[in-house]
Amino acid sequence: MSEGTERDLAARVVELVRRVAGPAAQAEVLVTRSDLALTRFANSFIHQNVAETGTTVQLRLHVDGRTAAGGSSRVDPDGLAALVERTRAAARLAPPDPAWPGLTAPAPTPAGRPVDEATAFASPDERAARVRAFVDAVEGLEAAGYCRTSYRSGAFANSAGHSAVGRAAEAAMDGIARAGGADGVARHSADRLADLEGAVLGARAAAKARAATDPIELPPGRYEVVLEPAAVADLLQNLAWYGFNGKRYAERQSFAEPGVAQFDPAVTLVDDPLHASTLPFDLEGTARRALPLVEAGTTRAVAHDRRSGAEVGAGSTGHGMAGGSTFGPIPRNVRLLPADRAADVSVGAAAVGAGVTGAVGDPDTAALVAGVRRGLLVSDFWYTRVLDPKQLVVTGLTRNGVWLVEDGVPTRAVRDFRFTESYPRALGPGRVLGLGRSPVRQPDRSDGSWCEAPTVRLSSWNFTGGASG
Amino acid sequence: MGFDAATAAVQAALDAGARYADARVMHRRYESMSARNGDVEELAQHESIGLGVRALVGSGWGFHAVPELSDAAARDAGRRAAAIATASARVPGPPIDLVPVDAAVASWASDCAVDPLGVPLSDKGDLLVGATATMREHGADLAEGLYQIWDTTKWFVSSEGHRIDQHIRECGGGISATSIGDGETQRRSYPSYRGQYGTTGWELVTSLDLAAHAARIAEESRELLTAPECPAGETDLILGGEQLALQIHESVGHAIELDRILGWEAAFAGTSWLDLARLGSLRYGSELMNVTIDPTIPGALGSFGFDDEGSPAVARDAVREGRWVGVLAGRDSAAVAGLGYGGSVRADGWARLPMVRMTNVGLEPGPHTLDEIIAATDDGVLMDVNRSWSIDDKRLNFQFGCEVGWEVRNGRRGRMLRNPTYTGIGPVFWRSMDMLSSETVAWGTPNCGKGQPGQIGHTGHPAAPARFRGVRVGVRA
């Protein structure tokens, strides 16, 4: 199926709606074809290896003042007709929807980045080759992780005459090396599979795993920390979900206060979907674009879809998404801009592994660690959950390596901690002691969603429990 | 049509070199409605049908899924699955066997008195609109209601001769009231956040009587804003059944997943603190702790007739009188571990690989009641309804937050407490359980995440209130 096929399908559904529900019905349709493949390894062999091809049609219909949404994987004429009939019937029975924000008006859509065809349709052998390189690079340690490639081709159409098409491809690799109960991690996503170097990532993970062996247990308490990009990604994801979410903001459940200096001046956050290969429009057909969330410490904006934007008198910021009515519009491509904005390019796989020395895996982290008199170097966070959404108090654990830093040097591996910390407070004014210069793009659990951040040094992090409780 | 496509896919995989193959055709209809502050917020209906085929070539697995059921599409999927399995041999593992299972030819359907998709949308909408309006009238700043329905038909065929079709209907719902104060929010839910679920019909939602609880939880959410903070320290902890269900899910259910124990989830979901060498001898908890793996419980959310590799539903012990005796396994992981049973492998739809998942993992009833437990407690905290959950990658170190707590002093329930949290280490915690109620409910968890690509599992957890001694509570930022 080609981009044109998705466009034809979307147009066909809009026409079906017109026939079934009349010319006054407002319909928006997104057709997405996806080719997703993931090669997964554990105990240093490939144990799960999957691929799927599929097309989904998502329809939202507003008729006679009532709204319903539906979706289907059936794209044959009977399947499309059933989708329209079902959604029409649901809309008829739905209660009035006075807050319906209307359809996206016809407008140009950005082209998006060119798709790397070699990534879009990579073979299982190509993914397996990267796994082979990762496993070889850990030199006898156990290796586990995945190599993923994805391709999406999408077309949007609505009954207001707006349409848009786009394509996206992404590759990601995420792996750990395991040395006697200690794990080290390397994680990276890119627009091109060719930019992922299994050997470099494996070597980095192995070096960190070896440096994480024989950990000591330290008492809980507040420590200065250097957070590597994988850990910083967790901060950005939670800030996005609970803070820069227009629905939660409208419900007064968000900490965000636009115009207020809520963060350290070193913090500039941008939701920047077009920084990577992506469909250049959202579920409602709104063009996706960069949205400054925080500029030099001052909160600037939250994300909106058409409905949440209308509620607060703002427009959509291009964050319409499936489930958005319930969960809210959420930034999914947040970048923490690095210290040296002139060097505002994410590093490739080679740079991810450059300067491998063990606990400190790159020059960027080394520079920040060098300034720490006594603190902790943290690779990754795990299983973070929100205790209080308003203050964004989060509990979670460290994972994949923690080290005690003394006088600028990692001196001992440390057992994992539990922490309980307010994320906005941890990044608050005066709390950010340094940012790295080389952001790394971190893959999320599904393609199209990522965070990009450099290593960050913070003055204080609240560790509330050790490995023993 | 389902059997034809699955059979074609399996045959094509065998023709392409697979020594074993199985295929599932699944047709799923999903409906959800959410309401907010007296209005319907979202009504969504989705339909999905497709085929997933799994092939074993040498010691390598491959899986391919397509949304088409034509003979040509099914055969192509089978060939692709075999090709992917062949590519797996570039990084080969040890030889793979499958523990034997009878090649069942069978049909199974879950019990369902009232077809949830047959209940008029207007009735379902009225239920949520009414309950959320009541919560607003009783002080909630944000009143939310939700129901979800899954209606799944699947056809399974294996190269060993399985031919099984199943029709599984699941549904459930719930309501939540949030009150917003200065710098914090407080939430109360009934019967739990995002609801109670089961493999059953709409009669489950009717039995919850959401409207009858709307005013109470709204008032409690507002009361929580001015309630004293849960004190920090070590104390006796009484958990309500809903919270204990999640405690079981996180610190027992995931820990006994054999794929985690074998390291197959090491990079993502994590491993387990359990060591197979101690299966049968390890003390997991107190003698009150009897945990079963039982997919045969009528109406519980983790119930089925056969799992997604054709093993029949069978009840097994996981923990007996505090001793660890069983695991959740699949046919290949069981063979690696030298065990004789699988039966706990499921896939989240046709496009996902079947993997080890919880079924119904729960506590057998104890000898007490909640009232007796409270009466027997001199100084403690009662907590109920989960608000947050976090546990380490070995399933040892956990911290949970609940929506509400109450002081327990001299055998009586006292003041309401806000922001109750507790933390501990799994086996230490379970060994401290000294009272367990007989008031068991099979709680349903419809949002268990696992796997890469991600899968959402539906699991059941029979649980009742219980008491734990000397637990650290009141952890905060």
Question: Top keywords for this entry?
Answer:
heterodimer, A: 469 residues, alpha+beta, PmbA/TldD fold, 2 domains, six-stranded mixed β-sheet, 36% strand, globular, B: alpha+beta, five-stranded mixed barrel, 10 helices, 23% helix
What does this structure look like?
The complex is a heterodimer of chains A (469) and B (477). Chain A is built from 12 helices and 19 strands. Chain A is an alpha+beta fold. Chain A has 2 domains: 3-211, PmbA/TldD superfamily (PmbA/TldD fold, 2-Layer Sandwich); 221-465, no CATH class. In chain A, strands 3-2-1-4-5-6 form a 6-stranded antiparallel β-sheet. In chain A, strands 10-9-8-11-18-17 form a 6-stranded mixed β-sheet, with helices on one face. In chain A, a hairpin with a 2-residue loop joins strand 5 and strand 6. Chain A is globular. Chain A starts with a helix and ends with a strand. The relative contact order of chain A is 0.14. The model of chain A is unreliable at 352-356 (pLDDT under 50). Chain B is α+β, with helices and mostly antiparallel strands and 477 residues long. Chain B folds into 2 domains: 2-226, 2-Layer Sandwich (PmbA/TldD fold), CATH 3.30.2290.10; 233-473, no CATH class. Chain B has helices at 2-15, 71-88, 121-137, 203-208, 210-226, 241-253, 258-261, 331-337, 370-375, 426-431, and strands at residues 20-36, 39-57, 60-66, 105-109, 142-158, 163-181, 184-190, 196-198, 233-239, 291-293, 316-320, 323-324, 345-346, 355-356, 361-363, 379-391, 397-409, 412-417, 421-425, 433-436, 441-450, 455-463, 466-473. In chain B, the strands form 5 sheets. In chain B, strands 1, 2, 3, 4, 5, 6, 7 and 8 form an 8-stranded mixed β-sheet that branches. In chain B, helix 1 (2-15) crosses helix 2 (71-88) and helix 3 packs parallel to helix 5 (210-226). Chain B starts with a helix and ends with a strand.
